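Q: I'm writing up a methods section and want to include an example of the input and output format. Could you take the sequence below and give the corresponding predicted structure tokens, formatted cleanly so I can copy it straight into the document?
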Amino acid sequence: MTSGDAAVLDDPVGESLRGRHEALGRRIRRAATFLPDVATFSAVPLDPDAADWADLARLLGRGGFADMFGCPASPPPDWAPVFVLEGRQMIWAGGDRPRRARAAIDSGVVELGAADVPEMLDLAARTRPGPFWSRTHELGTYLGIRHGGRLVAMAGERLRPPGWAEISAVCTAPEARGRGHAALLVNTLAARILARGERPFLHVAETNTAAVALYERLGFETRTHVTFSGFRTP
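A: Here is the clean output for your methods example:
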């Protein structure tokens, strides 16, 4: 297995927008943001100056929403705070392959694409796994599980800093919980990421103790604690 340099995970949004996801974003000098129907995440350098914040404000427009994904710096005081959420970043420590990954062969796991977006948006709205928009699926591979033709669980790839792939949008409909769908989807995605020579990582809210425990059982360990925050530009 080829392990990515963990230092790039200090700025996963910026690293993605400078590399694999450049075509899905916009940039002015050192400030960058995803296209609004892909993601709301924005990035400035880890040591931003006033010009960087001004450039990001230009990108977002007046009253624009800046989802600062674990950014350690604070924006100018005239940026209005929207939310603060404590979380953690977890990285794969489970070796060359996930346990039970081969179970996906007969599990009914399917790849999701543009035709599935209405169902993906509906499932995300009902389960609230995190931000999910009409083009979020373009960030990477998304997998799902259907019961009776209806999408009841999904997970996919989001941020892609060099050497790494983030597993995100892990969610299961309330009526389908307790059947191991989340574990199966995360294991399947992790196996695919590892097969490409990359390493899986993910983010989870600190209050979601059940998810933290699940990810630890599957082979992830906490790398660092992060603060997610959102602001409106003046």
